[in-house]
Design a protein that fits this description.
By secondary structure, the protein is α+β, with helices and mostly antiparallel strands. It has one domain (3-187). It is 56% helix and 16% strand. The chain has four helices and four strands; from the N terminus they run H-E-H-E-E-H-H-E. It has helices at residues 3-80, 101-115, 146-149, 155-164, and strands at residues 83-87, 124-129, 132-140, 178-187. Strands 1-4-3-2 form a four-stranded antiparallel sheet. A hairpin with a 2-residue loop joins strand 2 and strand 3 (132-140). Helix 1 (3-80) crosses helix 4. The longest helix is centred in the N-terminal third of the chain and has 78 residues, at 3-80. The chain is elongated and about 85 Å long.
Length: 190
């Protein structure tokens, strides 16, 4: 091997290594940004639900969830440049986003991880394919969720759910189960 061939090979190896390090750093930055958006979503929705529960009980909270959650997702999508949505294998709102194949597989994986004993709050995953970065973070069933998503739903709550969500599948959950996930997509410039 000549010195110039060796030098070219060495330069190529160094370039590939630096490129891989740059990709890893970019992925970490994207994961950090995605987690921030997930926290913003929860930080905007949960206080509104808690306030609604205190002001008018679960029936009022259903109204808030039906109207405010989609608005929060849309506002974050516009503000951040990411597509922000909530997905679940057991949908409540027929007008909500249906999980695509990747999201379904991730949700099934989250369910299996939860069944294996992993805490829902730690469950997240991402995928970088081409110019598309995808991120999902599981949402666990918390005590406040059981009022509308549990097994023992009061008749007035059931009536309000049927009003807003006539094809509701999102009941029968237990504390700590995976309720769904926040799903984020960002299209990267290439």
């Amino acid at each position: 091997m000549s010195i110039s061939t060796f030098s070219n090979a060495l330069i190529l190896m160094v370039s590939l290594t630096l490129s891989q390090q740059a990709i890893a750093a970019d992925e970490q930055a994207l994961k950090t940004e995605a987690l921030s958006i997930v926290k913003q979503f929860g930080g905007a929705l949960k206080p509104q639900l808690v306030h609604a529960m205190k002001q008018g009980g679960p029936v009022h909270a259903i109204d808030v969830c039906a109207t405010q959650a989609p608005k929060i997702a849309q506002k974050l999508s516009t503000k951040t440049g990411w597509e922000v949505k909530r997905v679940s294998l057991k949908t409540r709102n027929a007008n909500a986003a249906t999980p695509d194949d990747w999201e379904k597989e991730v949700l099934k994986s989250f369910d299996q991880q939860q069944a294996d004993g992993k805490k829902v709050g730690k469950m997240m995953t991402y995928s970088l394919k081409g110019n598309t970065f995808r991120f999902m973070k599981a949402q666990g069933v918390q005590p406040i969720c059981l009022t509308c998503h549990g097994s023992n739903i009061k008749p007035n709550v059931r009536k309000a759910l049927n009003k807003h969500f006539p094809n509701d599948l999102a009941t029968g959950y237990n504390l700590g189960q995976v309720r769904g996930a926040i799903s984020l997509t960002k299209f990267l410039n290439q």
